Amino acid sequence: MKHLSKFGLALLLFGLAFACKQAEATDNATEAAADTTAVDNISSNTAVEKKESNRKFVRTADLKFKVKNVAQSTYAIESIVAKNGGFVTFTDLKSAINEKTETKISQDSTLETTRFTVDNTITLRIPNTQLDSVLKSMVKEVAFLDSRLIKADDVALQLLSNKMTQKRLISHQKRLEKGIDTKGKKLNDITNAEDKVLGRETESDETFLRNLSLEDQVNFSTVTLYLYQRESVIQEMVANEKSINAYRPNIGLQVWDSIKTGWFMLEAIIAFIVQLWALFLIVILGIVGYRKFVKKQ
User: Fold this and answer.
1) Closest CA to 47 of 57, 32, 39, 33
2) What is the pLDDT of residue 144?
3) Which residues are 88's β-sheet partners?
C-alpha cells in the first residue's frame, strides 16, 4: 500500500508539472502571436484605388516603432524607399545623452560611462501604388510597434472643382482680351481692362498650382516615421589630466624667483622715491626757511 501511495503521488506531481509547462507554452505562443500581429499591422490596404475608379486619395501614414539599431534600420528603410521609386525629404538622426559618469580606475586612468538613446524622425514620399509594398517591406525592421496612423482623404471633387474654376477663369480672361481689342478706345479703359485680365491670369495660375500640388499628393504618399531603440551604454578608458602640482618648479628655483621678485620690488620702491624728489626739495626748503625766520625773530 505504501508503494502504491508513493507511486500515485509521483503520478500526481508529474501531471501537475506537465500541465504547468503546457500552460506556459500556450501563454508564450499567445504573446508571440500578439507581437507578430502588432508588427504585421504596420501594412495596410487603406483606400486602395481601383484602376476604373474615379476617386483620388491623398494617403498619409504616421508610424512609431522600436528597432534594434536605429542607424542600420534607417539605411535599410532608405534603401527600400529608393527601390520602390520614393525619396526621403527629411531625416533627423541623433543621440541623446541620458547619463554620463566617470570612475577613477588608477592614478592616470578614468573609466567614462555614457548612457544614451538614439532616435530618428524620417519623412518619406512614396508612389501611391507602392505604399503598401514599402510598409510591408519595413516589417522586418520593427521590433515593437507603438502606433500606426494611416489616413486617406478623397480629393476627387476638389480636383474637379479646381479644374472647373480654372476653365471659367480662362474663358473670362479671353472675353476680356477680346473686349480690349474691339472696344478699348480710351487709355484708362484699356488700363483697367488689362488689370482685370492680369488678375484673372493670376487666379488661374494659382488654381493650376493648387491642382498640381493635390495631384502630387495623390501620386506620392507622405509617410512620417519615428524610430527609436533601447538605451545603449558605451564605456571608454580616458587618461587623467596631470595635476597642476606636477608642473611646480623645485624649491631652489622658487627661492631664486623669490629673490628676484624681492629685488624688483626694491628697485620699484627706489624708483618711486626718486620720483618724489620735487616734494622732498619743497619740504627741505620749507624747513630751512622756517628755521631762518624763526631765528631772526
Assistant:
1) 57
2) 94
3) 124
Q: How far is CA 199 from CA 192, 202, 205, 210, in A?
A: 11, 5, 10, 17
The C-alpha cell at 244 is 597642476
C-alpha cell at 122: 524620417
C-alpha neighbours within 13 Å on the C-beta side of residue 290: 6
- Grouping H, G, I as helix, E, B as strand and the rest as coil, residue 194 is helix
Alpha-carbon gap, residue 47 to 25, rounded angstroms = 39
Is the pTM higher than 0.70? The answer reads no
- Average the pLDDT over 226-237 and give the result: 92
Q: Which are the contacts of 40, defined by CB distance < 8 A and separation ≥ 6?
A: 139
- Residue 192's pLDDT band (cuts 50, 70, 90): low
Q: How many CB atoms lie within 10 A of CB 86?
A: 20
Pairing mode, strands 232-239 and 87-104 = unpaired
- Rounded to 10 degrees, the C-alpha dihedral 259/264/270/274 comes to 170
Which residue shows C-alpha cell 500640388?
A: 213
Q: Are 121 and 253 in contact (CB under 8 A)?
A: no
